[in-house]
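Data availability (excerpt). The following record was deposited with the supplementary files.
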Amino acid sequence: MGVYSRAPLAFERGEGARLYTADGEAYLDCLAGIAVTALGHTNPKLVQAVKDQAEKLWHVSNIFMIPDQQKLADRLTQVSFADVVFFTNSGTEAIECAIKTARKHHWANGHPERLDIIGFDGSFHGRSIAAVNASGNPSYLEGFGPKLPGFIQLPFGDMDALREAVGPTTAAIIIEPVQGEGGARSVPEATLKAMRQLCDETGTLLIYDEIQCGLARTGKLFAHEWVEGAEPDIMALAKALGGGFPVGACLATAEAAKGMTVGSHGSTYGGNPLAMAVGLAAMEELTKPELMAHVREVAGYFTQQLSGLRDRFPDVVVDVRGKGLLIGIKLATPNREFMQHARDQHLLIAGGGDNCVRLLPPLTLTLAEAREAIEKLEGACEAARARAKAAA
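Predicted structure:
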Protein backbone atom coordinates (compact mmCIF):
# COMPACT_ATOMS: atom_id res chain seq x y z
CA MET A 1 0.00 0.00 0.00
CA GLY A 2 1.21 3.49 -0.76
CA VAL A 3 1.31 4.70 2.82
CA TYR A 4 4.98 5.72 2.96
CA SER A 5 6.70 8.71 1.44
CA ARG A 6 9.98 6.91 1.01
CA ALA A 7 13.38 8.44 0.43
CA PRO A 8 15.01 7.20 -2.80
CA LEU A 9 17.58 5.14 -0.93
CA ALA A 10 18.03 1.41 -0.33
CA PHE A 11 20.64 -0.17 1.91
CA GLU A 12 22.30 -3.54 1.52
CA ARG A 13 24.12 -3.87 4.82
CA GLY A 14 24.96 -2.05 8.02
CA GLU A 15 27.69 -2.02 10.63
CA GLY A 16 27.63 0.00 13.82
CA ALA A 17 26.47 3.51 12.94
CA ARG A 18 26.96 3.03 9.17
CA LEU A 19 24.58 1.93 6.45
CA TYR A 20 25.82 0.97 2.99
CA THR A 21 24.04 1.02 -0.35
CA ALA A 22 24.48 -1.76 -2.90
CA ASP A 23 27.14 0.28 -4.69
CA GLY A 24 29.10 0.82 -1.47
CA GLU A 25 28.12 4.37 -0.54
CA ALA A 26 28.28 4.85 3.24
CA TYR A 27 25.80 6.88 5.29
CA LEU A 28 26.16 7.91 8.93
CA ASP A 29 22.98 6.65 10.57
CA CYS A 30 21.62 9.07 13.17
CA LEU A 31 18.13 7.66 12.64
CA ALA A 32 18.72 4.07 13.78
CA GLY A 33 15.46 2.80 12.34
CA ILE A 34 13.69 5.47 14.46
CA ALA A 35 15.54 4.70 17.72
CA VAL A 36 15.39 0.93 17.15
CA THR A 37 18.94 -0.23 16.36
CA ALA A 38 20.16 1.25 19.63
CA LEU A 39 23.19 -1.03 19.80
CA GLY A 40 24.19 -0.40 16.19
CA HIS A 41 23.68 -2.44 13.06
CA THR A 42 24.68 -6.12 13.11
CA ASN A 43 25.75 -5.91 16.75
CA PRO A 44 27.81 -9.10 17.22
CA LYS A 45 26.12 -10.11 20.48
CA LEU A 46 22.64 -9.73 19.02
CA VAL A 47 23.63 -11.51 15.83
CA GLN A 48 25.00 -14.42 17.86
CA ALA A 49 21.84 -14.58 19.97
CA VAL A 50 19.74 -14.85 16.79
CA LYS A 51 21.99 -17.53 15.31
CA ASP A 52 22.07 -19.64 18.47
CA GLN A 53 18.31 -19.51 19.02
CA ALA A 54 17.40 -19.91 15.34
CA GLU A 55 19.09 -23.31 15.35
CA LYS A 56 17.05 -24.43 18.37
CA LEU A 57 13.47 -23.11 18.42
CA TRP A 58 11.54 -20.20 16.90
CA HIS A 59 7.95 -20.49 18.01
CA VAL A 60 5.80 -22.66 20.29
CA SER A 61 2.84 -20.44 21.39
CA ASN A 62 2.08 -19.03 24.80
CA ILE A 63 0.02 -22.07 25.70
CA PHE A 64 3.40 -23.49 26.81
CA MET A 65 6.05 -22.23 29.19
CA ILE A 66 8.82 -20.23 27.47
CA PRO A 67 11.83 -20.14 29.83
CA ASP A 68 13.58 -17.15 28.24
CA GLN A 69 10.34 -15.20 28.44
CA GLN A 70 10.39 -15.64 32.21
CA LYS A 71 14.07 -14.67 32.30
CA LEU A 72 13.47 -11.44 30.35
CA ALA A 73 10.41 -10.60 32.47
CA ASP A 74 12.50 -11.14 35.60
CA ARG A 75 15.22 -8.89 34.22
CA LEU A 76 12.77 -6.10 33.36
CA THR A 77 11.07 -6.21 36.75
CA GLN A 78 14.43 -6.26 38.55
CA VAL A 79 15.47 -2.97 36.96
CA SER A 80 12.10 -1.19 37.03
CA PHE A 81 9.05 -0.32 39.14
CA ALA A 82 7.10 -3.24 37.65
CA ASP A 83 5.98 -6.60 39.04
CA VAL A 84 4.62 -8.14 35.84
CA VAL A 85 5.28 -7.99 32.09
CA PHE A 86 3.31 -8.84 28.95
CA PHE A 87 5.40 -9.30 25.79
CA THR A 88 4.30 -8.00 22.41
CA ASN A 89 5.74 -7.64 18.91
CA SER A 90 5.64 -3.85 18.72
CA GLY A 91 5.19 -0.60 20.58
CA THR A 92 1.64 -0.20 19.34
CA GLU A 93 0.72 -3.57 20.82
CA ALA A 94 2.35 -2.57 24.11
CA ILE A 95 0.18 0.56 24.16
CA GLU A 96 -2.94 -1.51 23.45
CA CYS A 97 -2.06 -3.73 26.38
CA ALA A 98 -1.45 -0.68 28.61
CA ILE A 99 -4.86 0.80 27.78
CA LYS A 100 -6.62 -2.52 28.36
CA THR A 101 -4.73 -3.05 31.62
CA ALA A 102 -5.75 0.38 32.93
CA ARG A 103 -9.43 -0.06 32.11
CA LYS A 104 -9.55 -3.63 33.40
CA HIS A 105 -7.95 -2.49 36.67
CA HIS A 106 -10.88 -0.21 37.42
CA TRP A 107 -13.39 -2.84 36.28
CA ALA A 108 -11.82 -5.32 38.73
CA ASN A 109 -12.09 -2.69 41.47
CA GLY A 110 -15.82 -2.28 40.83
CA HIS A 111 -15.58 0.93 38.79
CA PRO A 112 -16.35 -0.03 35.18
CA GLU A 113 -17.28 3.60 34.48
CA ARG A 114 -13.61 4.60 34.73
CA LEU A 115 -12.74 4.31 31.03
CA ASP A 116 -11.29 7.66 29.98
CA ILE A 117 -7.66 7.79 28.85
CA ILE A 118 -6.23 11.33 28.97
CA GLY A 119 -3.39 12.14 26.58
CA PHE A 120 -1.68 15.25 25.26
CA ASP A 121 -1.20 17.08 21.99
CA GLY A 122 1.94 16.24 20.10
CA SER A 123 1.91 12.69 21.42
CA PHE A 124 2.40 9.57 19.32
CA HIS A 125 1.45 6.17 20.68
CA GLY A 126 1.17 4.05 17.55
CA ARG A 127 -1.07 3.36 14.57
CA SER A 128 -3.82 1.04 15.78
CA ILE A 129 -7.31 2.52 16.17
CA ALA A 130 -6.97 2.79 19.95
CA ALA A 131 -3.43 4.17 19.73
CA VAL A 132 -4.29 6.91 17.24
CA ASN A 133 -7.26 7.89 19.39
CA ALA A 134 -4.99 8.05 22.44
CA SER A 135 -2.64 10.30 20.45
CA GLY A 136 -5.37 12.41 18.90
CA ASN A 137 -3.35 13.59 15.90
CA PRO A 138 -6.08 14.65 13.44
CA SER A 139 -4.10 13.58 10.38
CA TYR A 140 -3.83 10.03 11.71
CA LEU A 141 -7.55 9.88 12.56
CA GLU A 142 -8.86 11.25 9.28
CA GLY A 143 -10.88 8.77 7.25
CA PHE A 144 -11.08 6.08 9.92
CA GLY A 145 -14.52 6.88 11.23
CA PRO A 146 -15.67 8.82 14.27
CA LYS A 147 -13.34 9.43 17.15
CA LEU A 148 -13.63 6.67 19.73
CA PRO A 149 -15.25 7.55 23.06
CA GLY A 150 -13.09 7.38 26.15
CA PHE A 151 -10.09 9.31 24.82
CA ILE A 152 -9.35 12.91 25.82
CA GLN A 153 -6.54 15.16 24.58
CA LEU A 154 -5.20 18.14 26.51
CA PRO A 155 -2.56 20.79 25.81
CA PHE A 156 0.99 19.55 26.44
CA GLY A 157 2.12 20.31 29.99
CA ASP A 158 -1.08 22.11 31.08
CA MET A 159 -1.53 20.89 34.67
CA ASP A 160 -4.50 23.16 35.32
CA ALA A 161 -6.39 21.61 32.41
CA LEU A 162 -5.35 18.14 33.58
CA ARG A 163 -6.59 18.69 37.13
CA GLU A 164 -9.91 19.89 35.75
CA ALA A 165 -10.21 16.95 33.35
CA VAL A 166 -9.50 14.16 35.84
CA GLY A 167 -12.79 12.95 37.27
CA PRO A 168 -14.92 9.93 38.20
CA THR A 169 -14.69 8.42 34.70
CA THR A 170 -10.90 8.77 34.33
CA ALA A 171 -8.98 5.50 34.04
CA ALA A 172 -5.47 6.72 33.24
CA ILE A 173 -3.17 9.48 32.06
CA ILE A 174 -0.81 8.50 29.23
CA ILE A 175 2.31 10.50 28.39
CA GLU A 176 5.76 10.20 26.86
CA PRO A 177 8.30 11.58 29.37
CA VAL A 178 10.14 12.82 26.29
CA GLN A 179 8.00 13.15 23.18
CA GLY A 180 9.44 11.63 20.03
CA GLU A 181 7.43 12.37 16.92
CA GLY A 182 5.81 15.38 18.57
CA GLY A 183 9.05 17.34 18.35
CA ALA A 184 11.38 15.94 21.04
CA ARG A 185 9.71 17.88 23.85
CA SER A 186 10.80 16.83 27.33
CA VAL A 187 8.12 16.95 30.03
CA PRO A 188 9.31 19.24 32.87
CA GLU A 189 10.28 17.38 36.03
CA ALA A 190 7.77 19.32 38.11
CA THR A 191 5.00 18.32 35.72
CA LEU A 192 5.78 14.61 35.96
CA LYS A 193 5.85 14.85 39.76
CA ALA A 194 2.55 16.72 39.76
CA MET A 195 0.98 14.07 37.51
CA ARG A 196 2.13 11.31 39.84
CA GLN A 197 0.68 13.16 42.83
CA LEU A 198 -2.61 13.80 41.02
CA CYS A 199 -2.91 10.13 40.11
CA ASP A 200 -2.26 9.10 43.71
CA GLU A 201 -4.90 11.52 44.97
CA THR A 202 -7.57 10.42 42.50
CA GLY A 203 -6.90 6.70 42.04
CA THR A 204 -5.95 7.32 38.42
CA LEU A 205 -3.29 5.15 36.79
CA LEU A 206 -0.22 6.75 35.23
CA ILE A 207 0.97 5.23 31.94
CA TYR A 208 4.37 6.11 30.50
CA ASP A 209 5.07 5.53 26.84
CA GLU A 210 8.84 4.97 26.86
CA ILE A 211 8.88 3.17 23.54
CA GLN A 212 11.23 5.77 22.03
CA CYS A 213 12.71 7.54 25.06
CA GLY A 214 13.30 4.48 27.25
CA LEU A 215 16.06 1.87 27.49
CA ALA A 216 19.08 4.16 27.97
CA ARG A 217 18.14 6.64 25.22
CA THR A 218 18.22 9.60 27.66
CA GLY A 219 21.29 8.45 29.60
CA LYS A 220 19.31 6.57 32.25
CA LEU A 221 17.67 3.21 31.69
CA PHE A 222 14.23 4.82 31.74
CA ALA A 223 13.54 8.47 31.00
CA HIS A 224 11.33 8.91 34.07
CA GLU A 225 14.28 7.97 36.30
CA TRP A 226 15.57 11.53 35.89
CA VAL A 227 12.65 12.54 38.14
CA GLU A 228 12.57 11.18 41.67
CA GLY A 229 9.17 10.04 42.86
CA ALA A 230 7.48 9.94 39.46
CA GLU A 231 7.27 6.21 38.71
CA PRO A 232 4.36 5.01 36.57
CA ASP A 233 1.84 2.27 37.21
CA ILE A 234 2.12 0.96 33.66
CA MET A 235 4.82 1.46 31.01
CA ALA A 236 5.14 0.54 27.34
CA LEU A 237 8.53 -0.41 25.86
CA ALA A 238 9.69 -1.58 22.42
CA LYS A 239 12.18 -0.32 19.81
CA ALA A 240 15.59 -0.76 21.53
CA LEU A 241 14.32 -3.80 23.46
CA GLY A 242 15.03 -5.99 20.43
CA GLY A 243 17.81 -3.90 18.92
CA GLY A 244 16.13 -4.28 15.53
CA PHE A 245 14.20 -7.49 16.15
CA PRO A 246 10.47 -6.93 16.78
CA VAL A 247 9.97 -7.00 20.57
CA GLY A 248 7.68 -4.93 22.77
CA ALA A 249 6.58 -5.12 26.38
CA CYS A 250 3.93 -3.74 28.70
CA LEU A 251 5.16 -3.46 32.29
CA ALA A 252 2.88 -2.91 35.28
CA THR A 253 2.65 -3.12 39.02
CA ALA A 254 0.73 -6.09 40.39
CA GLU A 255 -2.02 -3.74 41.56
CA ALA A 256 -2.39 -2.04 38.17
CA ALA A 257 -2.56 -5.44 36.44
CA LYS A 258 -4.99 -7.06 38.87
CA GLY A 259 -7.71 -7.30 36.21
CA MET A 260 -5.49 -9.04 33.67
CA THR A 261 -6.49 -12.60 34.49
CA VAL A 262 -6.48 -15.73 32.33
CA GLY A 263 -8.20 -14.98 29.02
CA SER A 264 -8.06 -11.19 29.38
CA HIS A 265 -5.36 -10.71 26.76
CA GLY A 266 -3.07 -12.67 24.51
CA SER A 267 -0.71 -12.75 21.55
CA THR A 268 0.23 -15.43 19.05
CA TYR A 269 3.78 -14.25 18.47
CA GLY A 270 4.44 -12.05 21.49
CA GLY A 271 7.20 -13.42 23.70
CA ASN A 272 8.31 -16.07 21.19
CA PRO A 273 11.63 -17.86 21.90
CA LEU A 274 13.54 -16.09 19.11
CA ALA A 275 12.45 -12.62 20.24
CA MET A 276 13.18 -13.41 23.88
CA ALA A 277 16.71 -14.59 23.13
CA VAL A 278 17.44 -11.31 21.34
CA GLY A 279 15.73 -9.28 24.08
CA LEU A 280 17.87 -10.89 26.76
CA ALA A 281 21.04 -10.12 24.80
CA ALA A 282 19.93 -6.54 24.23
CA MET A 283 19.03 -5.97 27.88
CA GLU A 284 22.42 -7.25 28.98
CA GLU A 285 24.01 -4.41 26.99
CA LEU A 286 21.40 -1.70 27.59
CA THR A 287 21.62 -2.01 31.38
CA LYS A 288 25.38 -1.50 31.55
CA PRO A 289 26.26 1.67 33.49
CA GLU A 290 29.14 2.39 31.11
CA LEU A 291 26.75 2.52 28.16
CA MET A 292 24.54 5.08 29.91
CA ALA A 293 27.59 7.12 30.91
CA HIS A 294 28.67 7.08 27.27
CA VAL A 295 25.22 8.26 26.17
CA ARG A 296 25.41 11.19 28.58
CA GLU A 297 28.89 12.11 27.32
CA VAL A 298 27.93 12.03 23.64
CA ALA A 299 24.65 13.82 24.36
CA GLY A 300 26.55 16.58 26.16
CA TYR A 301 28.80 17.00 23.14
CA PHE A 302 25.79 17.20 20.80
CA THR A 303 24.07 19.76 23.03
CA GLN A 304 27.14 21.99 23.07
CA GLN A 305 27.83 21.74 19.35
CA LEU A 306 24.19 22.11 18.27
CA SER A 307 23.91 25.26 20.39
CA GLY A 308 26.84 26.58 18.40
CA LEU A 309 25.07 25.76 15.12
CA ARG A 310 21.97 27.57 16.36
CA ASP A 311 24.07 30.65 17.09
CA ARG A 312 25.75 30.51 13.68
CA PHE A 313 22.60 29.68 11.69
CA PRO A 314 19.72 31.48 13.44
CA ASP A 315 17.92 31.67 10.10
CA VAL A 316 17.91 27.85 9.96
CA VAL A 317 18.00 26.49 13.55
CA VAL A 318 15.37 27.89 15.91
CA ASP A 319 15.77 25.62 18.94
CA VAL A 320 17.56 22.55 20.24
CA ARG A 321 15.55 20.30 22.54
CA GLY A 322 15.09 16.77 23.83
CA LYS A 323 17.07 14.67 26.31
CA GLY A 324 20.08 12.40 25.95
CA LEU A 325 20.31 11.00 22.44
CA LEU A 326 16.71 11.86 21.62
CA ILE A 327 17.55 15.26 20.18
CA GLY A 328 15.20 17.60 18.38
CA ILE A 329 16.21 20.51 16.17
CA LYS A 330 13.39 22.96 15.48
CA LEU A 331 13.91 24.63 12.12
CA ALA A 332 13.02 27.87 10.39
CA THR A 333 13.15 26.08 7.03
CA PRO A 334 10.94 23.08 6.06
CA ASN A 335 12.11 19.99 7.90
CA ARG A 336 11.59 17.69 4.90
CA GLU A 337 13.92 19.84 2.83
CA PHE A 338 16.47 19.82 5.64
CA MET A 339 16.35 16.01 5.82
CA GLN A 340 17.23 15.94 2.11
CA HIS A 341 20.12 18.36 2.70
CA ALA A 342 21.35 15.98 5.42
CA ARG A 343 21.06 12.98 3.08
CA ASP A 344 23.08 14.92 0.52
CA GLN A 345 25.78 14.99 3.22
CA HIS A 346 25.31 11.22 3.68
CA LEU A 347 23.70 11.74 7.08
CA LEU A 348 20.40 10.07 8.01
CA ILE A 349 18.08 11.86 10.46
CA ALA A 350 14.40 11.59 11.34
CA GLY A 351 11.54 14.03 10.88
CA GLY A 352 9.27 15.20 13.66
CA GLY A 353 6.36 17.40 14.60
CA ASP A 354 6.58 21.15 15.17
CA ASN A 355 8.87 21.40 12.10
CA CYS A 356 11.64 19.50 13.87
CA VAL A 357 14.18 16.95 12.80
CA ARG A 358 15.41 14.36 15.25
CA LEU A 359 18.80 12.81 15.93
CA LEU A 360 18.28 9.25 17.20
CA PRO A 361 21.69 7.65 16.69
CA PRO A 362 22.78 4.27 18.03
CA LEU A 363 23.65 4.62 21.71
CA THR A 364 27.08 3.26 20.78
CA LEU A 365 27.85 6.25 18.53
CA THR A 366 31.43 7.34 19.16
CA LEU A 367 32.52 10.91 19.85
CA ALA A 368 34.38 10.86 16.53
CA GLU A 369 31.15 9.88 14.78
CA ALA A 370 29.29 12.59 16.69
CA ARG A 371 31.82 15.15 15.43
CA GLU A 372 31.26 13.85 11.91
CA ALA A 373 27.51 14.21 12.36
CA ILE A 374 27.95 17.85 13.44
CA GLU A 375 30.08 18.55 10.37
CA LYS A 376 27.41 17.05 8.14
CA LEU A 377 24.68 19.03 9.92
CA GLU A 378 26.71 22.17 9.35
CA GLY A 379 26.77 21.35 5.64
CA ALA A 380 23.00 20.83 5.71
CA CYS A 381 22.55 24.21 7.43
CA GLU A 382 24.64 25.91 4.78
CA ALA A 383 22.59 24.25 2.03
CA ALA A 384 19.32 25.26 3.74
CA ARG A 385 20.53 28.86 4.02
CA ALA A 386 21.58 28.93 0.37
CA ARG A 387 18.24 27.53 -0.75
CA ALA A 388 16.32 30.08 1.31
CA LYS A 389 18.38 32.93 -0.17
CA ALA A 390 17.85 31.61 -3.69
CA ALA A 391 14.09 31.38 -3.11
CA ALA A 392 14.00 34.95 -1.80
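Summary of structural features: The radius of gyration is 21 Å.
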